[in-house]
From TrEMBL:
Domain of life of the native organism: Bacteria
Pfam families to which the protein is assigned, alphabetical: HTH_20
Keywords, alphabetical: DNA-binding
Species of provenance: Nonomuraea thailandensis
Protein name, as recorded: DNA-binding transcriptional ArsR family regulator
Record lineage: Bacteria, Bacillati, Actinomycetota, Actinomycetes, Streptosporangiales
CDD domains: HTH_ARSR
UniProt-recorded Gene Ontology molecular function terms: DNA binding; DNA-binding transcription factor activity
InterPro entries recorded: ArsR-like_HTH, HTH_ArsR_DNA-bd_dom, WH-like_DNA-bd_sf, WH_DNA-bd_sf
Length: 112
């Protein structure tokens, strides 16, 4: 598996369970048990998902006595969003040019 930040972020986001965990953490810190509640899987399976998210830098785990809260880290999401936005601008420009060309062709065929 590639270990550049963008690849790690997208790989972590590829799984719906991990996306659901991130959505929950967007509401605030939570323990592993709290994060595991809505899923029909073992704590060990949830912990594996958390390790993927942690390796991608999308979450961090704190320590407060016996409580180890997980929290969302947004920097990797910001980086992924910036990357997507860069390409969105390119694609949008291409689609705009394509739309103008289609209109030009349609208008030309109406005059035949």
């Amino acid at each position: 598996m590639p270990d550049d930040q963008l690849s790690l972020t997208f790989a972590a986001l590829a799984d719906p369970t991990r996306r659901a965990i991130l959505a929950r953490l967007a509401e605030g810190e939570a323990t592993v048990n709290q994060l595991a509640e809505p899923f029909d899987m073992s704590l060990q399976a949830v912990s594996k998902h958390l390790k993927v998210l942690e390796r991608a830098g999308l979450i961090s785990r704190g320590r407060d006595a016996q409580w180890r809260p997980c929290r969302l880290e947004t920097a990797p999401l910001d980086t992924a969003s910036e990357w997507i936005d860069r390409y969105r601008e390119r694609w949008s420009g291409r689609f705009d040019r394509l739309e103008r060309e289609i209109r030009r062709i349609q208008e030309g065929s109406e005059h035949d």
